[in-house]
Amino acid sequence: MALIKCSECGKEISNKANACPNCGCPVEKETRIVNITRKGGAPALKAYITIDGQDIGNIRANKNISTDLTIGKHTINVKTVGVRGEDTSVDGIQIDITSDMEQINISVGNKYSLMNEITDRGQEIMILEVDYGNGKIIKPLEKEKPDIVKRKNNRKQIPLLIIGVLCFDIGLILGPTTTNDSLKFISVILIVIGFVCYGIGIRNMIKNNKK
């Protein structure tokens, strides 16, 4: 069900209503064409489109599907299954169709590349862009999902952890094997640096995973 404004009283009512329950004005069933295009992706995998809970159909890579929607707000969801059978569905967005729009073009596609994310998120399908046809273009999911950001931030700590382990190991090996006071001092410094680097890396990962 989508909500539209009554042309008489301005109250929000269901687009399926025959008349406004507030003032009794007949509901005008004005519609617009909505084109949904799949941008890239695995050719064998289908993206299943539902609008307001109703099945619209499915589209493969670089194909499109069209439907008529009434003036008002609608919710679009995209459901997919990944290459290993995992659910990679993503909830869609609300689009608000107004009378000044002639045609709405929606692009869906893979937000993340398998080259960048070796995970089941690599084939994740989501709405990338909505062109309302009146000069208004929105990209609702430009920001990365929190779990993707967490993994990227955790990977940034890996060099720090490696430096910590190397410094600690070198310090432990160097200390007992030398009689030179300067080298013994350096081994102690390396051990301290190793503890600090490793500790900072672990702390950052823990803080990141709690966000």
Task: Describe what is shown at a glance.
29% of the residues lie in helices and 32% in strands. It has helices at residues 146-156, 158-177, 181-210, and strands spanning 3-5, 12-14, 31-39, 47-51, 54-59, 64-70, 72-80, 90-97, 103-110, 125-131, 137-138. A hairpin with a 5-residue loop joins strand 10 (125-131) and strand 11.
What is the approximate shape?
elongated
- The CATH topology assignment of the largest domain is Immunoglobulin-like
The CATH architecture category of the largest domain equals: Sandwich
Distance between the termini: 35 Å
The Cα radius of gyration reads 28 Å
- Show unreliable segments: 112-124
How large is the count of helical segments?
3
Order of helices and strands: EEEEEEEEEEEHHH
| Beta-strand segment tally | 11
**The CATH homologous superfamily of the largest domain:** Domain of unknown function DUF5300
Q: Please give the largest β-sheet.
A: 5 strands, mixed
In what range is the share of β-strand residues?
25-35%
Q: Any idea of the CATH class of the largest domain?
A: Mainly Beta
Average pLDDT for all residues? 76
Q: How many independent structural domains? A: 2
What proportion of the residues is helical, as a percent range? Answer: 25-40%
Give me the side-by-side strand order of the main sheet.
6-3-9-10-11
Structural class: alpha+beta
Written overview of the protein:
The protein folds into 2 domains: 3-143, Domain of unknown function DUF5300 (Immunoglobulin-like, Sandwich); 151-210. Helix 2 runs antiparallel to helix 3 (181-210). The protein starts with a strand and ends with a helix. The protein has 211 residues and is α+β, with helices and mostly antiparallel strands. 21% of the residues are buried. It has a 5-stranded mixed sheet with strand order 6-3-9-10-11, with no helix packed on it. A 4-stranded antiparallel sheet has the order 5-4-7-8, with no helix packed on it. 29% of the residues lie in helices and 32% in strands. Residues 112-124 have low confidence and may be disordered. The chain contains 3 helices and 11 strands. The protein is elongated and about 95 Å long.
